Amino acid sequence: MIRQGLLICLTFIPFISLFFVVPTFEIENNMAIVHTIGLIVILSGINVWLSMMCAWWLLWTDSRWKHVIEWLVFLPLFIPMLATLFGLYLILAEAGLIGTYVGVTLALLVVTIPYSIRLAYNGMAVIGRPLLEQARILPSRRRVMYVLYPLFSRLMRTIALFTTVILLSQFALIQLIGAGLIPTVTTELYQSYAGNNRGLALSNTWMLILFPVLLYFLLSGWDRYMVRMLKGRLQ
Amino acid sequence: MLRSSVVVTIMVSLLPLTALVFLAIESTGTDWGSLLTDETWRDSFVTTLYVVSVSTGLSLVIGTWLARTVVQKGWRFLSSVLRLPMFVPHIAAAYLIWLLFSGTNGIGWIEANERNYVTVILTYIWKETPFVFLMMLGTYEQLNRGYVEMAKTLQLSPVDQFKHGELPFLMKPLLDSAWILIAFISFAYEVPALLGVTYPKLIGVLAYERLSTGLYLEATEPYAVALVWTCLVGIGVFLSYVLTASIRRRIERGVRR
Q1: Which of A10, A126, A211, B175 is the most buried (most CB within 10 A)?
Q2: Cβ contacts (< 8 Å) between B69 and chain A: which residues?
Q3: Can you tell me the distance from the alpha carbon of A72 to that of A82, in angstroms, rounded to the nearest whole number?
Q4: Cα(A59)–Cα(A56) distance, rounded to whole angstroms?
Q5: Among B13, B92, B234, whose Cβ lies nearest the Cβ of A205?
Q6: Which ipTM did the prediction report?
Q7: CATH code at A27-232
Q8: pTM of this prediction?
Q9: pLDDT values of chain A reduced to their tens digit, one per residue, 235 residues
Q10: Which domains does chain B have, with CATH numbers?
Q11: How far off is chain B from A235, nearest CA to CA, in Å?
């Protein structure tokens, strides 16, 4: 019990710093918040969709290309993120997408999708083929609504959360690909960390932590509402 | 719809590989001789190796130990708590760790601009240990305890019990976690740029600053360094997977049976 308590304390200790200084809640550029929320919604949606589809395909396919594609989708995890970013910078410059919303979204998608596929693949493996095999007997609409959605809702929430955290961690990527024209909360806040205004830096830290927390509660609430509604329909 | 989504995913996954081809093309004009003898890059390389090996090594050891302990003792609440740092963005985590250990409001153990990168290492350990923990948790939950019991019956020492009854099964998740962490930590910008010193900088910070600062816009060095670093990581990944292929295949066959 003491060891467990000690480990919990060690995990929580860095959060104590949040209360060292009184945060001053101020953000000058509202567009940064709009861009951040927009990117979170778009990227989470695309990540959840593509990763679930890809993991589902990898789970069921008998294709002889399965192992090659499995390697291909997981390989970017082993390529340093900044190296990918430098190369993407050259590709997107050729395509004229530097400084655009599309360019930033694409670059963020490239760095987040391998993690999402890994999560989706592991999550589906834990649920197991027998249960999913039984679900395949149902017509596709009923299968998705009454079996797959309730089974995968937590997994989808985790993928959305991971995507959000990776997005909020990116300063170099958004600054380089966005050419400083796509402000997000992270790019706006990064300067405050380098400065001496600890109150402002701390309020920014609060904001960076609260984004994923809010998303978690929103998605949890939505999941609970949907599952309850679907249960009501089945009765 | 399923197939078109998979095709889109494959195309997105091909982009990092295409990016490497572009890096190689852009690096063609690099003076490799001066790059390899440049003291700034060399010092950055050494410091990066130190930060990466300490952060990755400690994260792997602590994460594995935690997964083992949580499964053996059935500590479900701790298992949930340990995941929390993963949902804190890296920049926020770096600032929290710096505030905690800095002099003005925190404990005051670490001075500003400390050259040993202790705060960077602590940030990575706090952030990446939960990742390793999650990777190892699934393996430990499915681990057949029969092997450990047999090792105990044979009166092997605790180290040998771990070596023969657990380690072979942990090989794949350990390798996966190790290389993902090495690739991530070794060539990153945000955390070392925020907490690191002006000299020697970590290699990712130096490369990014040379690329984005007006003074070096014409230089191909950052691209060349990014390419070399990716090749080094790639060779490491390839060798480690090839060297452990037979043992991993034997384990997989055993698990399937």
Answers
A1: A211
A2: 3
A3: 19
A4: 5
A5: B92
A6: 0.86
A7: 1.10.3720.10
A8: 0.89
A9: 788 888 888 888 888 888 877 777 666 667 888 888 999 999 999 999 999 999 989 888 888 888 899 889 988 999 999 999 999 999 999 999 999 999 999 999 999 999 999 989 888 887 877 777 787 788 878 888 888 888 888 889 999 999 999 999 999 999 999 988 888 888 887 777 766 677 778 888 888 888 889 988 998 888 888 888 877 766 6
A10: 38-256 (1.10.3720.10)
A11: 31
